[in-house]
Design brief:
The protein has about 350 residues and is an alpha/beta fold. About 45% of the residues lie in helices and about 15% in strands. The chain has helices at about 10-15, 25-45, 55-70, 80-95, 110-120, 140-150, 170-175, 200-205, 220-225, 240-255, 260-280, 305-315, 345-360; strands spanning about 50-55, 75-80, 95-100, 125-130, 130-135, 140, 155-160, 180, 195-200, 295-300, 320-325, 330-335.
């Protein structure tokens, strides 16, 4: 019950054990087409360029930046935690200019600050932000932020690593141009895959670059022909066949449950956790209206040692919760309710274990 990876459903683990076939096998190609459709369903998009990158969410992040940005480009990046900082790092490594919009850790991105920055920097071509900031538990208003970006003719790059499958993500409805996620959070799949999607406008930018993408492996103009499904698939790299089996099964489970039902389940379980933590005197870092239901950042009660409590939970109850990052290190815990882990029995275990450990 930490910030990821989450528990994996038995069906997904079983999918991993299916016989490995070649990554150019026609049978595998058929599965890839289904996987694309399931990813489009999860992202709520019709983008043709919707794939799973053969690497974790950090590679999905890098793929979005290195494919779209060129040296000298100006990017407004919203930072309210660790993963916004990583976005800025990607921007500078691409030789682009990062215009920083900063918000307090534990709070959502402020839309007015973004608009003010865009007014001051008419040269900006992109807006980048984290939808659900895993380091703090803060959920930003992606729909509003994307709308502001469009008013100033900027393409958007959005991190949905922790949000996809747990709260609403509407790529087409919100006008997101480049989006990335991870397999190991609310999708409850094994780590090591990064779902991404690029809008037609983003694909045009990739196809009309003046300089080559600085990463050969993450160059989407090369990978597209492998995932396109139109005609013969061209070899790019050896795909992680069994992991993709698992992602297919995880997405199929999400499809059968339904997006709205999944979002509601995460919210309902979050509310149960909130009520139980309140009885233990544990409060939240993030205001209620800005919280990620599936990633609960809470303040460590005064006088408790962070590491020793987490060690006791792990040793005595086989229960993992996450530590705080950055300025929150030693001050907060991050309790995950993601995907298959968002179940009544997990919350009951977590609350009972915390109660016992805190009373020792």
């Amino acid at each position: 019950m930490g910030p990821g990876p989450s528990d994996i459903a038995p069906q997904v683990l079983a999918a991993l054990s299916r016989p490995t076939v070649g990554h150019l096998d026609p049978t595998f190609g058929g599965m890839m087409e289904q996987l694309k459709q399931l990813l489009q369903f999860a992202f709520q998009t019709r983008n043709e360029c919707t794939i799973a990158i053969s690497a974790p969410g950090s590679a999905g992040m890098e793929a979005c930046f290195v494919n779209l940005l060129q040296p000298g480009d100006s990017v407004v990046v919203c930072i309210n935690g660790v993963f916004g900082q990583r976005m800025r790092e990607n921007i500078t490594r691409c030789g682009a200019k990062a215009v920083v919009v900063e918000d307090e850790w534990g709070r959502a991105v402020t839309p007015q600050k973004l608009e003010d920055a865009l007014k001051q920097h008419p040269e900006a071509k992109f807006v980048a932000f984290v939808h659900a900031e895993t380091s703090t538990g803060a959920l930003s208003d992606a729909k509003t932020l994307c709308s502001i970006a469009k008013q100033y003719n900027c393409l958007t790059i959005v991190d949905t690593v922790t949000s996809l499958g747990g709260v609403e993500v509407n790529v087409d409805g919100w006008g997101i141009d480049a989006v990335y996620s991870g397999s190991q959070k609310c999708l409850s799949c094994v780590p090591g895959l990064s779902p991404v999607s690029f809008s037609p406008a983003a694909v045009d930018v990739i196809k009309n670059r003046k300089v080559p993408v600085q990463s050969w492996f993450l160059d989407q103009s090369l990978v597209m022909t492998y995932w396109s499904g139109k005609g013969k698939r061209s070899y790019h790299h050896t795909a992680p066949v069994n992991s993709l089996y698992a992602l297919h099964e995880a997405l199929l489970m999400l499809y059968k449950e339904g997006l709205q039902q999944s979002w509601q389940r995460h919210l309902t379980q979050h509310q149960k956790l909130v009520a139980g933590l309140d009885e233990l005197g544990i409060d939240f870092v993030v205001p209620e209206s800005e919280r990620i239901p599936q990633l609960n950042a809470v303040n460590i009660p005064q006088g408790l040692d962070d590491a020793s409590v987490r060690r006791s939970l792990l040793d005595e109850f086989n229960l993992e919760i996450g530590a705080g990052l950055g300025p929150f290190a030693g001050k907060t815990w991050r309790i995950g309710l993601m995907g298959y882990a968002a179940r009544n029995e997990n919350i009951a275990l977590c609350l009972a274990a915390l109660k016992q450990v805190l009373s020792n």
